[in-house]
Amino acid sequence: MQAPPYSTRVDEILTRAFIENPHPVFARLRDEAPISRVGDTGVHLVATWDLIEEVLGRESDFSANLTGMLMQDPDGQPMLFPLPTTGANQVIATADEPDHSVHRALAQPRLSTRRVAAMEEQIRGWSKAAIEPFIDAQGGDFIPIAEVIPARVVAALLGLPDGDVSRHRQWAMMGGDMLAGPVDQQTMATLTAETASMSEYLFTHLESARKKRRADPEAPMLHALARGVDEGAISSQQAVGIAVVMFGAGGESTAALIGNMMYRLATDPDVANRLRAEPSLVSRFVEEVARLDSPFTFHYRVVRNACELGGAELAPGDRLMLLWASANRDADHFEDPDALRLDRKHPKNHLSFGRGAHFCIGGPLARLEARVVCEELLAGTRELSLSAEHPAVFAQSLFVHRYDELPVVARPA
Fold it and tell me: Rounded to whole angstroms, what are the CA distances from 408 to 97, 119, 294, 386?
């Protein structure tokens, strides 16, 4: 075995150029260094479908716990920022067995196929209310729409008051900021303080749910989490942590998917017109956007034991960055991997919602939200295009591929 090779330009991943378009770097990594080390941080990039799938199947070697994240030091060099190894950080998506199954069992019934389908009418109402003024104004910045709809959905799922949607929207976008990579210490301190406010808010509503807990299957997720606390299956801290994950996974990633979808519609009029003519293809379009523009660029894994991956030696405590966005364009698994195609035989065969035991339980809900927004946009417009005066602006995040600003011109139908 050998040590993981350094990629000759691996420090590119902390630059704005990479954030805006990581795919040339990913293509080089897949060809030259499918597993590569980021300086002396102990972090390793895993770039190919086969290696990522191998990691996901070796839970005894690789933990899902989030115990550190890649950041820039004051000199602009990569460094590892450590995170607590217990408590609210290690819940559901970042929990190992047996905790993961306990957390998932509490949350998943609230995201059943039936319950997700039952939310369509409500989501369509929110989408119409947000999109109709946007079209009447012949466009504008689309990102407030992309963010507020998932924030409303997450709040409804948890059982939080819709009147607090502005706070929910802010919190939903915060997780990716913390894991962004290029973030300074002052920003991190601000994000940490706001996360504490969010946790306090959620704890208050959790305690309210414990006092008025509903046992019926239609009860919001906070009531299910309250039951888990009352029965001793999880702690209050873990319950709040699961709710926080729902905001990030259900809010920010879905907002990213919806924003990325709008970008595709505004830059590819042929696809937009075909979808107007054949609305049944919208679901396939959503899957292709999720594959090509993966909302989450990566997730971490922690090396448990000294082991080998792809011919490289790994030490306990090393971290892996599983590059979903890279694997989703791996030519060994996709024909025309960089092309948006609506005729793929298995359109859902991508890694944007994870895979295996940690497959995203909110995936069907995110797909529903994106489909409904797309349908409402296309039904109300005859043309969508990017603003010529105001360029789109990417969020400065290594973790989530999304826009902070996306000015669009909308021609009403």
Answer: 45, 28, 21, 4
